[in-house]
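Summary of Year 1 activities. Much of the first year was spent building the evaluation harness for sequence design. The harness presents a backbone, in tokenized form, and records the residue chosen at every position. We chose the following record to illustrate the format because it has been used consistently in internal testing since the harness was completed.
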């Protein structure tokens, strides 16, 4: 009793600030619990055993329920005063306000109507999860079998959502549908022994008796063969006979009913700014011109006397810039990753405990997949992060780009940032797992530039590769707004990449397919990178010799991903706290 009275007295003495923190902490905990109940994929990755057996509910009824809950959280958040909060609670309040608006917007625009894209849709969800799902017990295996049992219903619900998109005219364009159809047909006839859905069963722990292992594998294979394959065939038939004829006529999302309003929302959502599409386009043109001037300087450093198009043509064809085997490409990426690892302590005050591996992109998706990507690990489940390298079409994977790709996808890019966020203490789950594209992808692009400062690029060709990658993201600002706002053709969208980057033609094709099918997402990279660079320059300018790059990086990373305005507030507060000279 005495302890309770003392705690209450301390609460009163602390005044309104502590009371406000308590209210925000309680709200954050409730929001975390709700999110995990709605998202069994994330909940399972974080150790919720029951969630490992379930898939998300994507029905209209579920979205209606979510809409009501999100508005209730919004009302509760409005009742928490912004003044008097600790820095951590203020960050949670600001972040929650942004995320609630983002989630509400997705539901209000009924984005469930478009569950497919060139980059992978609902039908790939469980394939991705399979790549990072460990099998350490019979219970793990049974949970995965339950998910396989639930997969046909998940297919049917998403197909119904896509039918709603057909009825309302909110569909993907034909080039995207062609990619989806090819992928769907391939999945429907894939041999069982290479099916990604059965990958988790390839290695079962020896604590499971051999006869039980055989039974588990046989039951799983039967479910895929007898229940999943039929619905995969149904999906391919649906795409071919219903969805393809209803594909939107224009490439851009602005051509569908409500598309203009949606694109404005997407630009704001992915950049976390109030920039208009036209302002983003103008910024892209400015960045293209700036980076092109730097590329010309680097080209001369390489001793090339021709013009930029000739230099790019040479880079795309010269065999010295390409690996001769898949294994060689993986080994090159691994060597670069370890060279960066060697430099990290001098640039980052806090490093994650979770390790990462260098892995090939799974063969079933590699042909239409991006050059590289990061697969999030799980400290709770003991799964390392994955730097995924596409080893398909080696003549389209230039080695001069590999250091920048590694810096972006592995360290100091996605793995470092995401693993650090996962390991944060006293930060709510919704912030640790935050999907702020401008922060996450902006950090990845910023990391490519930092790799140059760390000495990772060893010659003008690799430095040009980094500039080519930066130009790639600048061209995204132009191409994405060009496609979805200005009504550009595909040739117009590809022109910026072909004329200004050394990206391989296959990479350009795959990337433009992605921008067409995922409006606005490509804008977050450059917008975020520019903000990181702006804030670092501000901190260096104000602190002078007191500026410490390791402490700056801790300041921007150790609160988890944040929208750009909250990131700016955090850095300004960090600058103000630095000791006087």
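For this record, the design step produced the sequence shown next.
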């Amino acid at each position: 009793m005495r302890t309770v009275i003392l705690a209450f007295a301390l609460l009163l003495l602390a005044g309104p600030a502590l009371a406000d923190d308590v209210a925000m902490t309680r709200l954050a905990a409730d929001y975390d619990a709700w999110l995990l109940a709605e998202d069994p994929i994330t909940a399972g990755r974080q150790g919720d055993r029951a969630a490992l057996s379930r898939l998300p509910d994507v029905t209209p009824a579920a979205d209606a329920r979510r809409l009501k809950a999100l508005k209730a959280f919004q009302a509760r958040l409005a009742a928490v005063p912004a003044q008097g909060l600790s820095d951590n609670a203020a960050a949670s309040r600001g972040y929650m306000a942004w995320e609630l608006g983002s989630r509400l917007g997705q539901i209000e625009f009924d984005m469930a109507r478009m569950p497919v894209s060139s980059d992978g849709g609902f039908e790939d969800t469980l394939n991705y999860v399979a790549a990072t799902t460990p099998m350490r017990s019979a219970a793990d295996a049974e949970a995965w079998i339950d998910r396989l049992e639930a997969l046909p219903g998940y297919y049917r619900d998403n197909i119904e959502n896509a039918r709603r998109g057909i009825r309302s005219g909110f569909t993907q364009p034909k080039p995207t549908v062609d990619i989806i159809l090819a992928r769907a047909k391939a999945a429907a006839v894939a041999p069982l022994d290479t099916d990604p859905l059965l990958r988790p069963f390839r290695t079962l722990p020896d604590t499971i008796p051999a006869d039980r292992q055989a039974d588990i594998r046989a039951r799983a294979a039967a479910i895929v063969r007898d229940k999943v394959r039929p619905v995969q065939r149904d999906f391919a038939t649906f795409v071919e006979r219903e969805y393809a004829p209803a594909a939107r006529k224009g490439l851009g999302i602005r051509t569908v009913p409500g598309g203009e309003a949606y694109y404005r929302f997407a630009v704001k959502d992915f950049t976390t700014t109030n920039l208009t599409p036209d302002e983003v386009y103008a910024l892209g043109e400015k960045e293209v011109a700036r980076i092109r001037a730097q590329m010309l300087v680097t080209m001369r450093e390489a001793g090339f006397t021709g013009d930029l198009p000739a230099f790019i043509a040479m880079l795309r064809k010269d065999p010295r810039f390409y690996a001769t085997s898949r294994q060689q490409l993986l080994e090159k990426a691994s060597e670069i990753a370890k060279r960066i690892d060697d430099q990290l302590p001098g640039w980052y005050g806090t490093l994650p405990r979770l390790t990462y591996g260098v892995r090939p992109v799974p063969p079933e998706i590699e042909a239409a997949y991006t050059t590289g990507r990061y697969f999030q690990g799980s400290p709770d489940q003991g799964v390392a992060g994955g730097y995924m390298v596409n080893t398909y079409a080696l003549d389209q994977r230039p080695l001069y780009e590999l250091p920048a790709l590694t810096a972006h996808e592995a360290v100091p890019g996605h793995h470092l940032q995401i693993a650090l966020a996962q390991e944060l203490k006293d930060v709510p789950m919704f912030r640790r797992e935050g999907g702020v594209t401008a922060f996450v992808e902006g950090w990845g692009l910023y990391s490519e530039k930092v790799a140059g400062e760390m000495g990772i690029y060893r010659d003008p060709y690799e430095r040009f590769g980094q500039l080519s990658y930066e130009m790639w993201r600048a061209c995204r600002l132009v191409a994405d707004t060009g496609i979805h706002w200005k009504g550009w053709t595909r040739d117009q969208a590809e022109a910026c990449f072909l004329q200004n980057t050394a990206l391989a033609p296959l990479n350009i094709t795959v990337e433009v397919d992605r921008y067409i099918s995922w409006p606005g997402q490509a804008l977050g990279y450059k917008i975020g990178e520019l903000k990181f660079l702006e804030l670092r320059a501000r901190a260096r300018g104000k602190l002078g010799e007191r500026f410490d790059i390791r402490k700056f990086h801790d300041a921007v990373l150790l609160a988890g991903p944040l929208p750009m305005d909250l990131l700016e507030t955090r850095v300004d507060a960090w600058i103000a706290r630095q000791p006087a000279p």
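The chain has 23 helices and three strands. Quantitative recovery figures across the full test set are reported in Table 2.
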